[in-house]
Amino acid sequence: MENSPFNITSHSPEETIAAGEWLASWLHQGSVVALRGGLGVGKTYFTKGIARGLGVQEEVTSPTYTMIAEYQGVLPLYHIDAYRLEGDADFSSLGADEMFYGTGVSVIEWSERIPQSIPKDALIVEITLLEQNHRLITLRNIPE
Ligand SMILES: Nc1ncnc2c1ncn2[C@@H]1O[C@H](COP(=O)(O)OP(=O)(O)OP(=O)(O)O)[C@@H](O)[C@H]1O
Ligand SMILES: [Mg+2]
Prior knowledge:
about 140 residues, alpha/beta, 7-stranded mixed β-sheet, 3 helices, about 20% helix, globular, binds adenosine-5'-triphosphate, binds magnesium ion
């Protein structure tokens, strides 16, 4: 994918789930998906799709209060919400960064809040609200 972004447009929550499900087929042990985008833009819906693609049976919900939720699919899925974290030090103190090098797939909402903690080989997925139900989903690598 190099550094040229890959764009997907979504016109409904279902299409955002489908985009996440498609992405899941490219993920493997240790993959980190760093989600970016404002409040209510669809980060949790995209994660629901990743979970579906990984064969997670349980319903994925927002981990805003728990901060980390773990689900079991063909691989473990770690769903992290950094919204309430003050920054990278806060994240490290949770011991959560070790997950990034583990055996599962990690998906982080509000990843822009913990920039130093995101591994260099993470995939950045930025979701932008275009109008009403219309979203632009951009996939790219972290620039060198
Ligand atoms: N194309 C779309 N893709 C995703 N969600 C959409 C779309 N159109 C409308 N929605 C609505 O937008 C909301 C997205 O909610 P979601 O919880 O996924 O956002 P979020 O980015 O995780 O929010 P938060 O910042 O609170 O974590 C839902 O209510 C969903 O129904
Ligand atoms: Mg969310």
